[in-house]
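Sample intake sheet
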Amino acid sequence: MESPGRVNDSSNLVHQVSPLSCLDYSILATIFVFSIYIITMILSMCGNTLALIIFLCHPEKYCANQKRFRGTHSTVARRTKNDVNVTCSEDGASSLIKPLSISTQETETLKNTDLPRGLHHVKRSFVAPNPVMTSSFNYYLASLAVSDLLMGLFCIPVTFTQICLGYWPFAHFLCPVVVYAQLVMVTASTLTNTAISLNRLTGILDPIRQRRLSSSNPFSHTWLRIACIWFVALTGSIVQLVVTGVRSEEGIEVCQEGWSGQLHNRSIYTVVLFVVLYIIPLGIQGTTYGFISYKLWKRSTPGELVHSVEKMRLKEKRRIIKMLIFIVVMFGICWLPSYIFFLLQDFSHLDQRVDANTSRVIFGVCHWIAMSNSFVNPLIYLCMSKSFKVSDW
């Protein structure tokens, strides 16, 4: 069993080899591999469960009552005629530097203050209520945590069991169901990460429209997008319910795809998965985050700022750009080995070039690297950049 929803076809040679425990590997190596898989599964479940709880139950720690992130802006302190300090930023967007806190009395004063032309957006930013400031972003992260959590539950233990035993030890009806669930979770996770990058780009290009949509109906747009992601994942993976099943190879029952002798159909399916779930998402994420990084770095500072503020702004830019690069690089690194393995298996007949034991070990390593992405995602969004997390959509 393998991700994304594919079955290692080297299992049809399992009758020629003994189970993994009987290979000429040391017991220590077997224990090490087993430990790595168990640790990965535990980290994935714990990390995504924690992320899900935080995103849904404690949004104030990451999103509530925070200003939107639309880029790295400069902060200019201005004093009105009533000596009220306010913070304004380029293009009317909120600053990454923490805004000046003002009291209730100062807020009332600001309401009645005639600000110079060009500073009315500052007045609206401080005075106008915005109860849906950044809540919707949490639901995207919660959806990502659910898909990664279920991926760890379905993909890691079942796949590892078949790799070790060399046969399908579970009920027959579970074979297509589990493989289908694996592909659903992989697709949902990939599409959610891609949606996050697209919405970050929208926040940079058209922040006013994003604010208007959020204010008019805060959650309908978010839930509609999430529903579309899961609908595509659920319907696009149905093919696994049709082609996957338990088949007997000289008395050994294995869970694998069956294409009725038409191997070119399997090759086409592999290429489609590679393009739709890897090339296109990686290209979109790389392009959007690259453009966002370019806009962040290019954006200039209006007015004259003290050196310390400018230095802080530059440091924040570099931190966010590094995080955006890290997201794309981790996605590409984690999933590339598995797709290379599938392509080699279909187009270069890998199972005929190497013995089944070696093929199973190679696949096990590729699968573990892919699954490690399921616990890297919550670490990225929870720990790496508060500025990214507090954004609104």
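Comment: The chain has two domains: 9-67+133-389, 76-127. Residues 11-26, 62-134, 389-393 have pLDDT under 50 and may be disordered.
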